[in-house]
User: Which sequence fits this backbone?
């Protein structure tokens, strides 16, 4: 502990490493039976904006027999000091070395954090390779969105939890405590854990590869280990634990506001979107529950802003009464309400207009593609007319700045689709002029992402467009959107390439990760630390061609590396969606137009949960 | 509008929180305390707070000061109890008192600050060497100290801003206390003073592992120094 004090004056932001925040929990190590460190593979400011951390922190610390502390990836200045002074990576609460914990639980938010996972293990003095870990070393477990294709990390984790953690975390901890009390070792515990629904123990499966590189077979090594691991899903969010007393960071987080999760899941069905599949079905919380949670959250945190989070918050069926109810409560303390992303329509703008009575935020719309044809391909059901009407409503309501999200490299994209982006952006500018936005104030920010095929989506079989082609597409947009009222930013195609490799990767990438770590890769999601050159060397050293993962079309017939992970959405539905994409056919949302047979409800014995007992209410006609 | 002066401590781990984050932290704590705050006007309403003087990251404050404004009068004891109950680790309310609204702005009133620096010595120093170093600093006509400005280092004379300086050895640790100029003009930082102590006193080693405490904030009335707390 004294060691750490000595390092603090020498780093840029010591507040990242000291803990002691409001609502942080420090428990007595001697009286609990299991000690868990929640590890976030990015910096404090990013990790503290993560709802999953706050949920699990509340649940585990709510148990009298368990504790959970936090650790984040140290920024390179602190990392250098830890290495130079031989101080092992420590938790914020007790400042104990991670090796002292029983369980080290990583959340896996994003593929480009994988080297941070390995680096954190290295800095903790824990062997990154699961098979080589000693009995006394912590169990290393993983969860979060990237656990839905855990294979690139299979060598490093003892187990993964697939899906929502609220319930399974108890089953896992109970099993752990019982196994320990019975004097069982790691392997015996893992055998028991593998029987828990939603738990995947990669060491209990064998993979055989074909000569052409594809997967020949993937099979459990023991008869009692399941063939497929089905994700966990919480049936009703009203009764699920929710952190109304989250840790309030002492230094400003990326999203420095209270998070009120209003529903989980999204059935809009954008065909590139992984979240839209893995979080199905849509489960709304009731109005009464949210009003109570929102009030508590504001009172217990003191945040000046409460964000209504979900994958598409404007879709919440009780949004107007929720906003009105919260606004009434928040008026005296000037707490404002924020929506993280907006649907591109006039209803959304009307909502935003109501919200900005306290504070003004940027309006963001995500048309994703420049033509109606391509929007049909990706099932993004917004028309140009709707988008322009939304822009008009926004400019008329006093906004001067609008942000638009697009994606390049989508399947079937042609030069006309890029022209469409240019035309749409210019059209939005014209609407701004027409609405009388003062000259010099009108701004359109265009943010361009590169398409990355993701596991479990209808586009999981699609190849990614080459880095060179993506760069050319971005260069084209840069050339054609050269207006001082337009700010253009774009994702680095090299980073998106690496993301695609790992998003569709298999176990052979474990060797690449180790090789990349040896070459100093970490913080790959940060432009200033990312180096494609180092990565290509690592692929070379491991004898793996990254293009086989990113640029190859996967076939319907082949065994996919993540086939043993079951999201509940059927393979037939994904194939049908993929086919419909090429036919430019749209698929409606089951909330409003009946079941689309994605398979989740019968498979997981769940159903969509609307906020109102008599079903989903439609949006008011005068606004939509 | 009713004005209250909060005297608080800022210690481990909160001493590692920078000033801007501290402002945010107090805004949040005051909201949690459900006090009837006065807010600024405009697009981005914030509770009206006036801190006496920013504390550098890592420096602990033993008697820091903050003025808050409330819409309706609340007993000082209640303000103290409500706010004291909702602060993060390392922050504690020591006292709360009503202050007349018309008193000068707290930040503008700050003219002096007292600091204490404590540290273990890398190399042993005798009491006599230490006393000689203090004497040399106090006898110096001018002490140049450079600080990083916006673009380049700015050099200035800190000697007129040092009003008292003492140093002693306590159980193998060196303890330096000082009273220096503070506030919006001629602010002297405590590490500038310890650095000059080493330089002018020609003492071995560097005072880098010192822990600094700000022990008081004062204003000047005539030729008297008056505590603001």
Assistant:
């Amino acid at each position: 502990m004294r060691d750490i004090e000595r390092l603090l004056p020498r780093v840029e932001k010591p507040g990242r490493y000291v803990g002691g925040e409001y609502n942080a929990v420090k428990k007595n190590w001697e009286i609990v039976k299991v000690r868990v460190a929640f590890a976030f593979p990015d910096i404090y400011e990013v990790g503290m904006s993560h709802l999953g951390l706050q949920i699990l922190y509340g649940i585990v610390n709510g148990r009298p027999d368990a504790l959970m502390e936090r650790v984040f990836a140290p920024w390179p200045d602190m990392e250098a000091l830890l290495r130079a002074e031989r101080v092992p990576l420590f938790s914020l609460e007790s400042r104990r070395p991670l090796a002292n914990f029983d369980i080290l639980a990583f959340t896996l938010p994003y593929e480009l954090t994988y080297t941070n996972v390995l680096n954190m293990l290295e800095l903790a003095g824990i062997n990154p390779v699961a098979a080589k870990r000693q009995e006394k070393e912590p169990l290393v477990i993983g969860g979060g969105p990237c656990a839905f294709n855990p294979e690139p990390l299979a060598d490093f984790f003892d187990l993964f939890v697939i899906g929502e953690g609220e319930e399974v975390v108890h089953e896992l901890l109970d099993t752990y405590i019982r196994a320990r009390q019975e004097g069982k070792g790691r392997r015996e515990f893992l055998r028991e854990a593998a029987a828990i629904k939603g738990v995947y123990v990669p060491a209990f499966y064998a993979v055989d590869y074909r000569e052409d590189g594809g997967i020949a077979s993937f099979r459990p090594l023991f008869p009692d280990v399941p063939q497929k691991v089905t994700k966990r899903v919480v049936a009703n969010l009203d009764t699920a634990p929710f952190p109304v007393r989250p840790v309030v960071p002492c230094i400003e987080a990326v999203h420095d506001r209270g998070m009120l999760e209003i529903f989980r899941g999204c059935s809009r069905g954008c065909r590139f979107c992984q979240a839209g599949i893995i979080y199905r079905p849509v489960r709304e919380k009731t109005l009464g529950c949210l009003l109570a949670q929102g009030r508590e959250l504001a009172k217990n945190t003191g945040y000046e802003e409460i964000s209504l989070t979900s994958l598409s918050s404007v879709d919440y069926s009780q949004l107007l009464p929720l906003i009105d109810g919260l606004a009434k409560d928040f008026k005296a303390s000037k707490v404002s309400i924020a929506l993280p992303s907006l649907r591109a329509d006039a209803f959304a703008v009307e909502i935003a207009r109501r919200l900005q009575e306290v504070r003004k935020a940027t309006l963001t719309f995500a048309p994703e593609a420049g033509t109606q044809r391509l929007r049909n391909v990706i099932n993004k059901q917004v028309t140009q007319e709707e988008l322009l009407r939304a822009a008009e409503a926004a400019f008329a309501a006093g906004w001067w700045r609008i942000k638009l999200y697009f994606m390049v490299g989508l399947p079937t994209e042609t030069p006309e689709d890029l022209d469409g982006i240019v035309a749409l952006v210019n059209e939005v500018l014209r609407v701004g002029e027409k609405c009388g936005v003062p000259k010099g104030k009108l701004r359109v920010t265009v943010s361009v992402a590169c398409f990355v095929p993701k596991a479990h989506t209808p586009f999981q079989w699609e190849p990614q467009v080459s880095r060179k082609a993506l760069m050319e597409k971005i260069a084209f947009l840069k050339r054609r959107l050269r207006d001082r009222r337009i700010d253009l930013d774009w994702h680095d195609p090299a980073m998106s390439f690496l993301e695609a490799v790992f998003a569709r990767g298999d176990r052979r990438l474990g060797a690449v990760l180790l090789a990349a770590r040896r070459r100093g890769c970490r913080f790959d999601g940060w432009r200033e630390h990312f180096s494609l050159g180092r990565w290509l060397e690592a692929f070379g050293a491991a004898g793996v061609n990254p293009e086989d993962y990113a640029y190859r079309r996967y076939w319907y017939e082949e065994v996919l590396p993540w086939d043993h992970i079951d999201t509940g959405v059927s393979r037939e539905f994904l194939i049908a969606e993929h086919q419909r994409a090429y036919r430019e056919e749209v698929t409606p949302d089951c909330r409003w137009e009946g079941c689309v047979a994605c398979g989740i409800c019968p498979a997981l014995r769940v159903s969509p949960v609307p906020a109102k007992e008599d079903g989903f209410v439609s949006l008011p006609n005068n606004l939509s | 509008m009713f004005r209250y002066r909060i005297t608080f401590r800022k210690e481990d781990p909160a001493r590692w929180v920078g000033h801007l984050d501290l402002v945010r932290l107090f805004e949040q704590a005051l909201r949690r305390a459900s006090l009837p705050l006065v807010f600024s006007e405009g697009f981005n309403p914030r509770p009206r707070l006036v801190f006496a003087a920013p504390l550098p990251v890592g420096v602990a404050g033993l008697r820091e000061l903050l003025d808050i404004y409330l819409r309706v009068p609340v007993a000082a004891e209640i303000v103290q109890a409500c706010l004291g109950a909702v602060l993060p680790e390392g922050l504690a309310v020591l006292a709360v008192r009503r202050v007349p609204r018309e008193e000068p702005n707290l930040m503008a009133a700050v003219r002096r600050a007292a600091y204490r620096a404590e540290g273990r010595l890398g190399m042993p120093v005798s009491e006599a060497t230490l006393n000689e170093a203090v004497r040399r600093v106090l006898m110096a006509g001018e002490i140049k100290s450079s600080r990083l400005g916006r673009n380049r280092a700015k050099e200035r004379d800190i000697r007129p801003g040092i009003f008292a300086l003492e140093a002693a050895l306590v159980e193998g640790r060196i303890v330096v206390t000082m009273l220096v100029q503070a506030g919006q003009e001629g602010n002297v930082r405590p590490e500038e003073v310890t650095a000059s102590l080493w330089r002018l006193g020609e003492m071995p080693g560097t005072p880098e592992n010192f822990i600094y405490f700000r022990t008081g904030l004062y204003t000047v009335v005539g030729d008297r120094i008056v505590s603001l707390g």
Q: What stands out?
A: Residues 257-339+553-624 of chain A form one domain. Confidence is low (pLDDT under 50) at residues 614-624 of chain A.
